[in-house]
Amino acid sequence: MSDKDTRLTLRIRSELKKELESVAAAEGRSVAQICDALLQGGLITYRKEGTRYFRRFLARRTEDSQKH
Q: DSSP of 3-57, one letter per residue?
């Protein structure tokens, strides 16, 4: 893996942050390492599936939000 040479700042829901922190604790990693791995995994899947990946993911999010 190459050296990290830039910063990405974004706002997320507090529930998502708590989940990321929980995963990081369970894995013995930092939140930054977990986010990096999840982003890399998402990009790999996106390269394979293209826009279908987003349509499937966004449809699932819509279903979940309608349940609450």
A: PP---------HHHHHHHHHHHHHHT--HHHHHHHHHHHHHHHHHHHTHHHHHHH
Each residue's pLDDT tens digit, 26-49: 999 999 999 999 999 999 999 999
Amino acid in position 18? K
Supply the pTM of this predicted model: 0.77
pLDDT tens digits, 14-31? 999 999 999 999 999 999
For the record, the structure tokens of 63 come out as 């279903």
Sign of CA dihedral 45, 29, 23, 6: negative
Pair 41, 51: CB distance under 8 Å: no
